[in-house]
Amino acid sequence: MDARYRLICRLIRLVLTLPVSTATTERSFSAMKHVKTDLRNKMGNEFLDDCLTIFFEREYVIGMDEDSIIDEFAKLKDRRVQLTL
């Protein structure tokens, strides 16, 4: 076997033995502990995902104008069925 290939093989083995960082995963689980508390333990996956997105992007969300959010929400299609008795 050529010396070049032995060195490449050795390099690949070294790379494969490097520890993988779990900081992102640990940060996600820590955030989930803050968002999904005992009082909110029946939260659905979609709502949990939305809450975690807001939690992670809180610097961006803090700078948002509440009135513009309300206006955008008001423009959405009304999906509730109006029942008349």
How would you portray this structure in words?
This protein has 85 residues and is an all-alpha fold. It is 65% helix and 0% strand. Helix 2 crosses helix 3.
Short description:
By secondary structure, this protein is mainly α. The protein has helices at residues 3-17, 23-35, 45-56, 58-62, 66-75.
* Helix content estimate: 55-70%
Average the pLDDT over all residues and give the rounded result.
82
What structural class do the secondary elements suggest? mainly alpha
Task: Sum up the overall morphology in one term.
Answer: elongated
Main traits of this protein?
single chain; 85 residues; mainly alpha; 0% strand; elongated
Fold blueprint:
Elements: H1 3-17, H2 23-35, H3 45-56, H4 58-62, H5 66-75
Helix pairs in contact: 2-3
Keywords: Signal
Domain HAT C-terminal dimerisation: 3-54
InterPro entries: HATC_C_dom, RNaseH-like_sf
